[in-house]
């Protein structure tokens, strides 16, 4: 069950990242008949299968748990940051009990993460380091936001920090 959730969730996250050019556009190809992101789903399925084959199920479950909880922490903190930085944005949903609920959410997720093993934390930080290498090596310069920023700056005559 853990592997199935990993495949479903991660393939959609990677698909969205590819559409935003955080991963190569090749991954965002949609199947002509089924209208699903088949390339990234196949790759994610293979990786998840290999992980399920080589890792004990408890370890795999802990990795999924720490990743999900970390994402929830980021979302909870993001709610607070966006409310303060961009109060003018239209919102389809408002968090009840703001700011108490997002703060409690982040704290409780951290608490649950604290019960995970040291090995899980090491694997999590290694995975995050790999993600940072991908981000700074590819995504930062190829992303949709980077392209929009550089074209907007160029049209206003603003130089980028590197150039």
What's the total helix number? 6
- Considering DSSP H and I runs of 4 or more, what fraction of the residues is helical? over 70%
Number of domains: 2
Total strand segments:
0
Sum up the overall morphology in one term.
Answer: globular
Low-confidence region ranges = 153-163
Mean pLDDT: 85
The SS-based structural class is mainly alpha
The major pleated sheet works out as: none
Please name the defining characteristics of this protein:
2 domains, 163 residues, globular, disordered C terminus, mainly alpha
Explain how this protein is built:
With 163 residues, this protein is mainly α. The protein has two domains: 1-54, no CATH class; 55-144, no CATH class. It has helices at residues 2-19, 38-54, 57-85, 100-114, 118-142, 144-156. The longest helix is centred in the middle third of the chain and has 29 residues, at 57-85. It is globular. 12% of the residues are buried. The model is unreliable at 153-163 (pLDDT under 50).
Task: Give the helices and strands, then pairings.
Elements (H helix, E strand, L loop, with lengths): L1 H18 L18 H17 L2 H29 L14 H15 L3 H25 L1 H13 L7
Helix pairs in contact: 1-2, 3-4, 3-5
